[in-house]
Prior knowledge:
With 150 residues, the chain is mainly beta. Helix content is 8%, strand content 45%. It has one helix and nine strands; from the N terminus they run E-E-E-E-E-H-E-E-E-E.
Amino acid sequence: MAVTPYDIPVAFHFQVEIGNDTSQDNAFQEVSGIEAGLESTTVKEGGENRFTYTVPTGQKYPNLILKRGLVTKGTPFVVWCEQTFKAGLSQPLKLKEVSVKLLNEEQDPIITWTFHNAYPIKWQIDALNAMDNKLVIETVELAYTHFEKQ
């Protein structure tokens, strides 16, 4: 069956690649923050106070948010995050490219978003609660300079 531009893909079949690592270490249950916008400012027209214009001042991107079950071993992704947080700003950041690929039923990418110069800025785990019967989920936020859609 031929794929048309009007076929709507499913949101649950995706793959995350961090740097050149395509291992299971990059298996996430949720990715959010794939968004772009323009920052703007309001300018009044000189001598004519009835009109204002919204003028773009630059691009803005929210953080990329990755969620998955807590990984307890020192995998490459975990080591990268730990090294970034432990070093503070005493060492240069290790920037990586992060790709999020939306896949079809044959495991082929339909759309790939590549986030350039990414680095972790926040790590957290869900609350531990003896009354809940659920997995421990870790959330990692990545900052980046820009992204491209292929």
